[in-house]
């Protein structure tokens, strides 16, 4: 997964500027991002503080690791079932 150029703190600061009345087009031009990126950030980080955003990222990483573990265990289980199910 591609790492963002902006930290959660920077993203939240940009969103607070947008909420404060700054035009989204001006903010996107100033920071070198598209307006759609700001709207996507607003959907994901809208209303969050910096510590809450960091916690969200930690939970997403943990969820990704757990899903990977489940996938690996499922593959191992299927391999064992097929190996034990065959008649010699």
UniProtKB/TrEMBL annotation:
It comes from the Bacteria. The keyword Coiled coil applies. One of its GO terms (biological process) is DNA transposition. The keyword Coiled coil applies. Pfam families: HTH_Tnp_1. Residues 49-83 form a coiled coil. GO terms for molecular function: DNA binding; transposase activity. Keywords: Coiled coil. Signal peptide: none annotated. Transmembrane segments: none annotated. This is Transposase. It comes from Engelhardtia mirabilis. The lineage of its organism: Bacteria, Pseudomonadati, Planctomycetota, Planctomycetia, Planctomycetia incertae sedis.
